[in-house]
Amino acid sequence: MENKMFCFQCQETAKGTGCVLQGVCGKTAETSRWQDLLLSVVRGVATIADALGRSGQPYDKVKVGDFVVDALFTTITNANFDDEAILNKVALGVTIKEDLRRQAVLAGVALPAYQEVIWEGDEVDYEAEGRRQGVLRNENADLRSLKELAVLGLKGMAAYYEHAARLGERDESIVDFMLKALAIVTNPDATMDELLGNVLETGKFGVDVMALLDKANTGVYGNPEITKVNIGVGKNPGILISGHDLKDIEDLLIQTEGTGVDVYTHGEMLPAHYYPQLKKYRHLVGNYGNAWWKQREEFATFNGPIVFTTNCIVPPTPKASYKDRVFTTNATGFPGWKHITAGADGHKDFSEVIALAKQCEAPTEIEQGEIVGGFGHAQVFALADQIVEAVKSGAIRKFVVMSGCDGRMKSRNYYEEFAKALPHDTVILTSGCAKFKYNKLNLGDINGIPRVLDAGQCNDSYSWAVVALKLKEIFGANDINDLPIFFNIAWYEQKAVIVLLALLHLGVKNIHVGPTLPAFISEGVLRVLVDNFGLAPNGTVEDDLQQYILS
Questions:
Q1: pLDDT value at residue 1
Q2: What is the distance between the alpha carbons of residues 27 and 9, in angstroms, rounded to a whole number?
Q3: Average per-residue pLDDT for the chain
Q4: DSSP secondary structure string, 202-265?
Q5: Rg over CA atoms, the chain
Q6: How many other C-beta atoms lie within 10 A of the C-beta of residue 534?
Q7: Would you say residue 2 has pLDDT above 90?
Q8: What's the pTM value of the predicted model, to 2 decimals?
């Protein structure tokens, strides 16, 4: 049977090799084709813009950069299932590409005759071009692997860059690199060495973009601080906001103040509670539910409207009670859901969401209690003396970084069992939705230091890199790998890829990745990562504890 599609970008990809009929995420073969088409247009735009830039020719960098960033973000797993929205982005990209190509011709800038560059964008050719530009266009498995590793890292980079830009922080060098990296990927004659160098440089700019987003978030909302977050419910109707975009939740909090409508976070929006300029709103009542993959049951009991600011969307069942009260923003989209766009001032109008909320019942309580978080690098530095003393005295034997993603596979129970089995003299450093496997367990503390320190969202893995570098300085270690830190990372989608590449750039070795290794890493590329960085899959809880914690 001929494959209807091919996608292997997420951890849950079919059979651990690739989705060929329909995405495990829920996207159709047609949606996958339009995403492949959009990515080909992105590569064409990037290649031409990079050529213009290297020739010293001016072009509209903001327009080009914003298109590339948005388009890459749109193709992240579980972000956008709306074919019409994706095709509108294709049309915009074709227009931008043709404008750039005309500029190159007028300036006498030679352009490579890559298919992505010369394709004229006729709508009648969309389907054929989408099929031609799929992942399998690269026949060599190792070359394909390196190209996809870079592109998937760039998708994560784009997500972080968009959040930072929405808060007023931009960095032209990051966008310039994205264009250069995409141009290298587009080159059909790029060598293994060139592509490997591209992947490693992607990690360098991954560090830069996470630092940029950290600067944006803390500059606007203050440094995260230790916070107890309610996981129960109030008596008022509520709005549930999911995703990663802090500017969206700020807009929503401002507009709901005094309306009698409460706001709750879900999934990766939980860390909004840690920021002083967001937690000050009394109607930010708490966090409702768990990680993204439980949304079908949790959205049904929430009773009020839901706002997706970014991925992860799980397509609702046809009979889902909540499917008519979901809204999307930014790069997200789903057929039939209302999409809220930003105005000229960069803010969004949530009045329709608020009006709907007033007609809904209050959320149904699904749990009670509190969870503690807010351990970004500034907060951890404030506790530095206490932490250093605990390490020197032997009260803390080891730190275990368990950042990353959660997901549906039963094999992810490994992370909960691993957290439970860790000795009482170990501390878990976490960020991202991976935390939901263990952040409600009663794991206690060490001399007042909680044994689970949550820095925040997936991008806040940056905090643990900063903390590790600071510990290296404090303890006078020659190498970051000499510290008592074990990296046991859970991945699901492409933001985890840029975090991994960033850690590799910082020199972190012997990182464990699970619950399975990425399907897009070929045997040849895996050998390179194992030989040079010690990358490995996780094993059993017992074996990993014995080898990396107890030995």
A1: 55
A2: 13
A3: 97
A4: HHHHHHHHHHHHHHHHHHHH-----EEEE-S--SS-EEEEESS-HHHHHHHHHHHTTTT-EEEE
A5: 23
A6: 13
A7: no
A8: 0.97
